[in-house]
Amino acid sequence: MCADGELRAEPIPERVLTRRRLFLAAAAGAVMTGGVAAAEGGFDRLRGDGLATARERAERLAIPERRRWEAHRIGTSVEGRPIVAHRTVRPDSRKSVLVVAAVHGDERGVAPVGVELTTVPIPTGIDAWVVPVANPDGWARGSRNNARDVDLNRNFPWWWTRADGGPTPASEPETQALMTLVEQLRPTVTVWIHQPYEYVSAVDPSVEHLARAWAGAAGLAYEPPIVQHGGGETWTYKTMRLPSILVEGTTRDTSADETSAHRRGFEALLAAL
């Protein structure tokens, strides 16, 4: 984010967009301490061993839709790691979806889900943005909070409280980068992925059909609209008045079944959008 508050999405050089480097860039940049082994182990299981053949995985990555995705730096963490968004946009699109994952660095299964979603063919007329790792310092450490020990999902400026939301509302650079992205994109719907409470909730009741589509395809329960003080999903709707959905997965660990389930959920949401 620049000094004037405007987001400048910085392209990631094309040479880094191999599958493994794509994940490492999304997770924490070219060099990361404390989380590389776990990240790479999760990445190796990303496609779900035994669920898809090597040929099927190669074909999925070779589809034209996959090549349209671009990686952009939308901000920088406390410790200087890039916060990366992957996007596929078309000039004639009328709708857009933003997916944000790994706001909490100890939710190890959601970053591989975010990367998996960038292999989903996006229907004509829809722009898609995915942030696989919103908290790269927490991801590197395997910790819920960021490098200043702030819970980013209590740091957004809606019903913020000093008790667990950091020194001031939106004090953290990770929070600021996500807020700027939402403010500038104004997506048709924003999906915030967490773990491990096993439900999907439409924070905005107007997108209940989209939340139910994801829940049904992923095998999760649907819960009535929720609110979370200082939460990104609640700030998106309550402050920005933009549709928002909360997805809670089933485990804090990397799981092939979990990754495949959320892929189906995303595909179902896109079909219903």
Q: What does the model show?
A:
- This protein has helices at residues 19-27, 36-44, 54-62, 64-67, 110-117, 136-141, 173-185, 208-218, 232-238, 256-272; strands at 10-11, 70-76, 82-88, 95-101, 126-131, 189-194, 199-202, 221-223, 244-248.
- The model is unreliable at 1-52 (pLDDT under 50).
- The protein has a nine-stranded mixed beta sheet with strand order 1-2-3-5-4-6-9-7-8, with helices on both faces.
- The chain has 273 residues and is an alpha/beta fold.
- β4, α5 (110-117) and β5 form a beta-alpha-beta unit.
- α1 packs across α2 and α5 (110-117) packs across α10 (256-272).
Quick summary of this structure?
This protein is α/β, with parallel strands linked by helices and 273 residues long. The protein is built from ten helices and nine strands.
